[in-house]
Amino acid sequence: MIFFLLFSLTVASILDIKGRPIPLWISIPPLLAELSFLILARSWQFLLYRLGGMTILFLLLLACAMIGHLGGADVIYGASFGLYLGLSGFYAVLAALLFSLPYTAYMKYRRNEKPYPFLPYMLAGLLVTLSVNTFL
Q1: Percent of the chain residues past pLDDT 70, beyond the cut
Q2: So what's the pLDDT on residue 115?
Q3: How far is Cα 135 from Cα 118, in angstroms, rounded to an integer?
Q4: Domain containing 6: what range?
């Protein structure tokens, strides 16, 4: 199931870099697929843990979107991270924020305040988090 999220996030990252809007039919299916998988697996405690991670990341990124330049796809993929990884999804979003800091500092230095694509950083953060979770 994680490969479905990685594929969808890669396609969305390419669209984000090109400056195109991310359609909902790209960002919503991984979220619905994992949710239906967890419901069909009938592991209710595991489902509640993952829903907690999804809710926390969704609310955190929604607040950031209201304040800053995050888009709707960033919020949806953040919620997907919580649903796929539970509270470890927070580490993926934190890694994405850390990866985006040099570019943000460069844009501040150049006094260029336009929004930049954040989904590629989220993809990198997800890959790092999955690697750390796999190898540790």
Answers
A1: 100
A2: 76
A3: 26
A4: 2-135
SS3 at position 23 = coil
Q: Tell me the backbone φ, ψ of residue 114, rounded to 5 degrees.
A: -75, 155
Other CB atoms within a 10 A radius of the CB of residue 130 amount to: 17
User: What is the identity of the amino acid at 25?
Assistant: W
Residue 113, pLDDT > 80, answer: no
What number of other Cβ atoms are within 10 A of residue 11's Cβ? 14
Distances (CA, A) of 71 to 1, 13, 29, 46, 78: 24, 12, 17, 29, 11
User: Two tokens at 13?
Assistant: 């990252």
pTM over 0.85: yes
Buried b / exposed e along 91-110 (16+ C-beta atoms within 10 A) = bbbebbeebbeeeeeeeeee
Report how many domains make up the chain: 1
